[in-house]
Amino acid sequence: MPSAPGFSAISTAVAAHLRAAYPAGEDGIAAPTICRDWHAFTSATDERDRLLLLLYHIEPDQAWRAANLPARDPAGAVLKTPAAWQLSYLIAAGARDALRAQDLLQLAAMHLHRDPVVGPRDAIGDRVLACTPQPHSQEQMLSLWGNLGRPMQPSLVYRVLATLD
């Protein structure tokens, strides 16, 4: 399994990509603070807008099952295919009122729909990450929020495909 700094860099790149959804001053919504852990998200005592970007599940991408098998380039050299991972993120919003929180989530979802690829411009080297929404039933969302010890609230779940060397 890759080291934690690889996953941390991916989370940092996804957070930077999300910040781009909130152009300064447009529609009266400034870029929210993006929190990558539950404590930072809930400990804010002021009315600042914030998004929770919580990495809650990591698993190998089954489409890359042969990742550890050698491959050959056209010249015959043996190459090693990089490992691919599926990272699941919970995205929730915190704001002074529920309507503003919904607006924050809507902008995040629209941005990730229009631009699902987190690329090299987001400081992850040559890797390209693909973000896809993950449908969850109400029971799955209740379970996810229950594991956090919190009542369910409006949120999004995205899966990011990442390759690590």
Mass-distribution shape = globular
Number of domains: 1
Give the number of DSSP strands: 8
What is the CATH class name? Alpha Beta
Query: Could you tell me how far the N terminus lies from the C terminus, measured between alpha carbons in angstroms?
Result: 11 Å
> What radius of gyration results from the CA coordinates?
18 Å
The CATH topology comes to STM4215-like
Secondary-structure blueprint:
Blueprint: H1 4-19, E1 33-35, H2 38-42, E2 50-60, E3 70-72, E4 78-80, E5 83-94, H3 98-114, E6 117-118, E7 129-133, H4 138-147, E8 155-164
Parallel strand pairs: 1-2
Antiparallel strand pairs: 2-5, 3-4, 5-8, 6-7, 7-8
Q: What does this 3D model show about the protein?
A:
The chain is of the alpha+beta class and 165 residues long. The protein has one domain (4-164): STM4215-like, CATH 3.30.2000.30. The chain is built from 4 helices and 8 strands. The chain has helices at 4-19, 38-42, 98-114, 138-147, and strands spanning 33-35, 50-60, 70-72, 78-80, 83-94, 117-118, 129-133, 155-164. Strands 1-2-5-8-7-6 form a 6-stranded mixed β-sheet. Strands 3-4 form a two-stranded antiparallel sheet. The radius of gyration is 18 Å and the shape is globular. The termini are close together. The model is unreliable at 1-5 (pLDDT under 50).
